[in-house]
TrEMBL record:
ATP-binding recorded as keyword: no
Pfam families (UniProt xref): adh_short
Name under which the protein is recorded: NAD(P)-binding protein
Species per Swiss-Prot/TrEMBL record: Mycena maculata
Gene Ontology molecular function terms on file: oxidoreductase activity
Gene3D superfamilies, A to Z: NAD(P)-binding Rossmann-like Domain
Record's keyword terms, sorted: Oxidoreductase
Lineage: Eukaryota, Fungi, Dikarya, Basidiomycota, Agaricomycotina
InterPro entries: NAD(P)-bd_dom_sf, SDR_fam
Keyword Flavoprotein among record annotations: no
Length: 346
């Protein structure tokens, strides 16, 4: 599928469906990247569905607590919200978060991975990676890998269907990975080093990370085999958010102008995250059909759509397999020892 700028703009003016609602009593929801923006709005909607636990995974204690305490936010009689800290720019922080969840021993029904950053220039994390690549494309999968055993146990012990939602973007339609990059072997190592991340390359680095998110969702779904876990990539659309807070100059002016004339509200974007987590399963008679339809899918405007032509091409499949192997190599950190019984080879 090809997405033109006109199609994107037209889609921004489509009427948005109401937020999906269901009963989450007794279930556990974890939202990563929740102290503001789309994650905050999605978490508020989850709270109104009365989950047994709502865990907000945030980078900042102060901002996360402010989100919890926001008047009209998680209040309204809901008292099961918990603030947990995680820094996706630090692999050790991700492992600490997962270790805490493993010690907690609870179920995990919904995991929404909303955290993403967009950088204008190269900045390295303490782990030596370009920041947006580590946050968006390494730590996001790492969280999923480390929490996957809990989700699978939940499916087996509670006869339910856990959901993993990875926030993607329609901007993935506008980028590809060139042959000269993937022929070097380790795609992630190439994309995450200072030599590659020139000023020119960084202009399209965020869409590139979203392309990698789509590849990750498709590859993980392929490896889950007969597991009842549903994983999908959700496009929230062009929304009012703080994602562009690191942008400056004329690009920032243009982004602000476009936000003013056609952006979805932050709450509308949050609706789409909620739909990816609880939607489509209303009709139990066709549950298995709908599961197959959504698993590994790219969701836009609350429906499954075909991702970019590059993603579905033969070349895209080869790149996806290579990225998967590269991902497991770079962030394995022994995580496969805990999930190897659930994964099959791509």
């Amino acid at each position: 599928m090809h997405l033109s700028m006109w199609a994107l703009i037209k889609g921004q003016f489509d009427k948005q469906p109401p937020v999906v609602k269901t009963d989450l009593t007794g279930k556990t929801v974890v939202t990563v990247g929740t102290n503001t923006g789309l994650g905050f709005e999605a978490a508020k909607h989850f709270a109104r569905m009365n989950p047994g636990r709502l865990i907000l995974a945030c980078r900042s204690q102060s901002r996360g607590q402010a989100a919890v305490d926001t008047e009209g936010g998680y209040g309204r009689g809901y008292t099961h919200v918990e603030l947990w800290l995680i820094e996706l720019g630090d692999f050790e922080s991700v492992k600490h978060f997962a270790d805490r969840f493993e010690r907690d021993g609870g179920r995990l029904d919904i995991l929404v991975e909303n955290t993403a950053v967009s950088m204008q220039k190269y900045e390295a994390t303490k782990d030596g990676w370009e920041t947006s690549l580590q946050v968006n494309c390494l730590s996001t999968p790492l969280v999923a890998f480390l929490l996957l055993p809990s989700m699978i146990r939940t499916a087996q012990e509670h006869a339910t269907i856990p959901r993993l939602v990875v926030v993607a973007s329609e901007t993935h339609y506008w980028v590809t990975i060139s042959r000269k990059i993937y022929e070097k072997g380790n795609i992630l190592a190439t994309l995450g080093n200072a030599k590659y991340c020139t000023t020119k390359a960084m202009r399209m680095h965020y869409p590139l990370t979203k392309l990698l998110n789509v590849f990750f969702v498709r590859a993980l779904n392929s490896c889950l085999g007969a597991s009842l876990l549903i994983v999908d990539a959700v496009n929230p659309g062009f929304c009012v958010s703080k994602l562009r807070r690191n942008i400056s100059g004329p690009v920032a002016w243009l982004a602000n102008f476009m936000e003013w004339i056609m952006a979805f509200t932050t709450e509308e974007g949050g609706h789409r995250l909620v739909h990816g987590a609880v939607g489509i399963l209303e009709d139990a008679d066709t549950l298995l059909t709908k599961m197959a339809w959504t698993r590994g899918g790219y969701l836009n405007q609350c429906r499954v759509e075909e991702p970019s032509n590059f993603v579905v091409s033969a070349e895209g499949h080869r790149v996806q397999d290579q990225i998967w192997v590269s991902l497991l190599t770079e962030i394995s950190l022994n995580v496969l020892t805990s999930v190897q019984d659930e994964l099959i080879e791509v």
